[in-house]
Amino acid sequence: MNTFEDLNLPKQLYNAVAELGFEKPTPIQEEAYSVILSGKDMVGIAQTGTGKTLAYLIPILRDLKYSEQLNPRILILVPTRELVLQLVANIESLTKYMNVRPLGVYGGTNINTQKKAVAQGCDVLVATPGRLYDLAVTGVLQLKGIKKLVIDEVDIMLDLGFRPQITNIFDLLKERRQNIMLSATMTEEVDVLIDDFFTIPTKIAIAVSGTPLNNIEQSSYQVKNFHTKINLLRHLLADKEEFSKVLVFISSKRYADKLYEAFEEDYGSETCIIHSNKSQNYRIRSIKQFDEGLNRILIATDVMARGLDLDKISHVINFDTPSFPENYMHRIGRTGRAEQQGKTILFFTEKEAEYKANIERLMSHKIPVIDFPEEVLRSSELLAEERPVVGDVKNHNRNTTEVVRGPAFHEKKLENTKTNQGGSYLRKAKKYKKSQTRGDKIQNMRSKKK
Ligand code: ADP
Ligand code: MG
């Protein structure tokens, strides 16, 4: 299958797609199509700008029968008001020749106006979680008719602390429904959510496109524990010429802070940090300082660093081994850009060796292991989660990957975002380098209104 024509879409839908100027489905669109039509739960992971929106809208709209019922049948949750508006516009253009009623609701505006709109009936409801819940508890909005639930940008949603709202919404839905989730990165939090609410979902993961693996020299060290990793990194970074611009990836905000603190003494003035608990200004400053070379070292979490387009990074350090192999691809893709030569180093503990094997399978490439340097101190200090759990071997994993949550951001803070969330697929196809304006979604997401 190569073109949209091959999907055998109903004429009305096909014509609308053709009018958008799209001829070929992107890889995620191609793969998601039959899974969504089959009615199975689905989790789709693909980089920002790869066309995830149409990946679910096309099969969903294809199956949507005309109806006059008041209650929505499709619910799409997104993290920001901007995305609500954008999605409604997307749906409107796709259903130009169909009789479908989309409606968008979001926080920060008069709820009564939205109550009236809801009361008029809709087929596809696009919403931010907080406002949706508020509308549902007033009783104006009935969610029992929801047949398909889509959570888009789920990694951002969870990173912004929307988990409780999402859980509440699940409680209001009928059990029998199809769940569809889209994300640019796979995180522990996303995984836990899937585990809790999804029924054996089909997972579609599209490998990071254009990651020039040949440009990236990969290596790894087996390291005993977190504190020994710190010692090793400290040791490596002492070579300032070789390690001239280093992006350090770490899986959680809490570990990122721990590492940052540990670096204070040796590399304090050279290190900056970004994760979603830091203010927007702080993050912008960090990235700028790193990009311009004022800071040699940037510590970042996975979700935060997505989409970052930084120049001339000498090394990407994987301070921990991602349990989702795609995340490794995202991480190392930050180096070796634009024909430059990049280097990446992976630290893995005995426990993480399994993750490393998964990554190697995905890449069909073994990551060479370098002997642990004699001169580096092996610490025997263990983090609480590194200590063996007595009598509870089975749950060990879950406990150690404890989810660290920042303060729940009130939806109000998210209002008025003006990010252009789309547009990069076409642009990227033409240009090697990612457009500057696109940047990191989260980053744009909470800036605004200044
Ligand atoms: P994602 O959600 O994966 O970040 P989007 O769904 O926002 O990506 O799509 C990114 C851009 O690509 C949008 O501007 C969209 O119009 C465009 N696009 C989507 N599907 C196609 C396609 N099949 N061919 C060309 N462009 C597409
Ligand atoms: Mg998207």
Notes on the structure:
By secondary structure, the chain is of the alpha/beta class. It has 2 domains: 4-206, 3-Layer(aba) Sandwich (Rossmann fold), CATH 3.40.50.300; 216-381, Rossmann fold. The chain has 19 helices and 14 strands. The protein has helices spanning 11-19, 27-38, 52-63, 81-94, 111-119, 129-138, 154-159, 163-172, 188-197, 226-237, 253-267, 280-291, 302-305, 325-332, 353-363, 396-400, 411-414, 424-430, 441-445, and strands at residues 42-45, 74-77, 102-105, 124-127, 148-151, 178-183, 202-205, 216-222, 246-250, 271-274, 297-301, 315-318, 342-348, 369-370. The strands form 2 sheets. It has a 7-stranded parallel β-sheet with strand order 3-4-2-5-6-1-7, with helices on both faces. A 7-stranded parallel β-sheet has the order 10-11-9-12-13-8-14, with helices on both faces. Strand 3, helix 5 (111-119) and strand 4 (124-127) form a beta-alpha-beta unit. Helix 2 (27-38) runs parallel beside helix 3, helix 3 (52-63) crosses helix 4 and helix 6 packs parallel to helix 8 (163-172). The protein is elongated and about 75 Å long. Mean pLDDT is 84; it is low at 394-450. Adenosine-5'-diphosphate is lined by residues 22, 24-26, 29, 46, 48-54, 421-426.
Outline of this structure?
This protein is of the alpha/beta class.
Q: Key features?
A:
450 residues; alpha/beta; Rossmann fold; 2 domains; seven-stranded parallel sheet; 19 helices; 14% strand; elongated; binds adenosine-5'-diphosphate; binds magnesium ion
